[in-house]
UniProtKB/TrEMBL annotation:
Protein name, UniProt field: Dihydrodipicolinate synthase family protein
Matches recorded under CDD domains: DHDPS-like
Gene3D superfamilies from the UniProt entry: Aldolase class I (3.20.20.70)
A Pfam family annotated for this UniProt entry: DHDPS
């Protein structure tokens, strides 16, 4: 029987939350704190979670910690069809992570953008094909940040791997996204705006039906307001939400997104929800910037 992945496709067409990974005072993963943050998201109505995403400091976690985060997420949700586990690094490591997620009940994986400086377009296809073919029963979602990748390459990948069902598209160019999606097959994939709420309105206008979010850790209701407006085609309301989150996202995106995770954790710390500590190459905010983040977080209905 051919797998249709309809449940997984539906899960991608919404707010795809990227949970932070809180650290305990001794520097280890704060398991209880992580569960509490997940439960807060789930209780607020967020249904799709991406453990081991970039907001979760994927590249700063050890292999064992990445497995732990995956396990905790699947235990807390109890429904693997709405968990999109981040995998990556070399092919054997990514495959092992995907199989570990599958064995725990996950039904989808997101393949991180390859970080090697030498990436050919055909090599990009080969990398993702090797992972997707190893887990044919899982929905696979490439994370695309490469503005040189052609839409035809994604179509080529899906021709041999029908379990490639969605795309986290994170090139900051709405016109390029519109062209890429149409070259790859607009109706063939679930298109997720991978640059979160700031880009969601423009990407939805070009065919996206979901967006990722780190901000959702802080204010789930704000992200839900955005997706509600976009689903109804109410761009006036969506842009009012955009204005509400603009400064927060500007702080995250400054200096090449140097403080992307830091700002989210600082906001959570100001609300008493987790410690502010991040791992290198991220670093905590200086004292003089913490007050602005706290004031923004306090102004939202959280």
């Amino acid at each position: 029987m051919t797998t249709t992945f309809e449940t997984q496709r539906t899960a991608l067409a919404g707010v795809v939350a990227i949970p932070v990974t809180p650290f305990a005072e001794d520097g280890s993963v704060d398991r209880a704190g992580y569960r509490a943050l997940l439960r807060r998201l789930l209780d607020a109505g967020i249904t799709t979670l991406t453990p081991n995403g970039n907001t979760g400091e994927f590249y700063a976690l050890t292999p064992e910690e990445r497995r732990t985060v995956t396990e905790l997420t699947l235990e807390e949700t109890g429904d693997g069809s709405s968990v999109l586990v981040g995998v990556g690094h070399d092919v054997p490591t990514a495959v092992a992570s995907a199989r570990h997620a599958r064995d725990l009940g996950a039904r989808m994986v997101m393949v991180h953008q390859p970080v090697h400086p030498y990436v050919s377009q055909s090599g990009w296809v080969d990398y993702h094909r090797a992972i997707a073919e190893a887990v044919p029963d899982l929905g696979v979602v490439p994370y695309i940040r490469n503005d040189r990748l052609a839409g035809a390459r994604l179509a080529e990948l899906a021709d041999s791997c029908p379990n490639v069902i969605g795309v986290k598209y994170s090139v900051p160019d709405a016109a390029r996204f519109a062209a890429f999606a149409r070259d790859a097959g607009l109706e063939r994939f679930v298109w997720v705006a991978g640059l979160a709420e700031p880009y969601a309105p423009s990407y939805f206008s070009a065919g996206a039906t979901g967006f990722t979010s780190g901000l959702v850790n802080v204010a789930p209701s704000v992200s839900l307001d955005m997706i509600g407006a976009l689903r109804s085609g109410d761009y006036v309301t969506a842009m009012k939400v955009w204005e509400q989150i603009r400064r927060f996202e500007e702080l995250r995106g400054a200096n090449g997104s140097a403080n992307n995770v830091t700002v989210v954790k600082e906001a959570l710390a100001s609300l008493g929800l987790c410690r502010r500590e991040v791992r290198p190459p991220s670093r905590p905010l200086p004292e003089d910037e913490r007050a602005e983040v706290a004031a923004i977080a306090a102004g939202w209905s959280v």
